[in-house]
Amino acid sequence: MTDSRVTMAIQTLMQVFHEYASKDEAHSETRDMNQFKLSKRELKELLQKELNFENVKDSDKVDELMKELDSNGDSQVDFQEFVIFVVSVACMTKFLGEKFGLKRGTS
Ligand SMILES: [Ca+2]
């Protein structure tokens, strides 16, 4: 039995999140996935490599986005905050594209 496309999309989101969120904790002995969160540096890297955000070289823009995403105020982006962001991108691609320089697809 093959996974549904939506299930695979969710798995991909989890894999991408954990890949970037674990960068700063690479040498940590703690491997509990729930403890992984995106730091500002990790968020910036994810935005550049996985979302083609052009304006993330502008540190103020990353600060601004980090504040918007960090709903619990711990200066990190956890998986829940990340998923809300991904859904926001899906719903407001045009708005975010103008604000943060999201590249248009070429298809
Ligand atoms: Ca947070």
UniProtKB/TrEMBL annotation:
The terms under GO molecular function for this entry are: calcium ion binding; calcium-dependent protein binding; transition metal ion binding
The EF-hand domain, residue ranges? 57-92
Asked whether the keyword Calcium is assigned, the reply is yes
What's in the keyword line of the UniProt record?
Calcium, Metal-binding, Repeat
- Protein name according to UniProt: EF-hand domain-containing protein
Q: Which organism is it from?
A: Periophthalmus magnuspinnatus
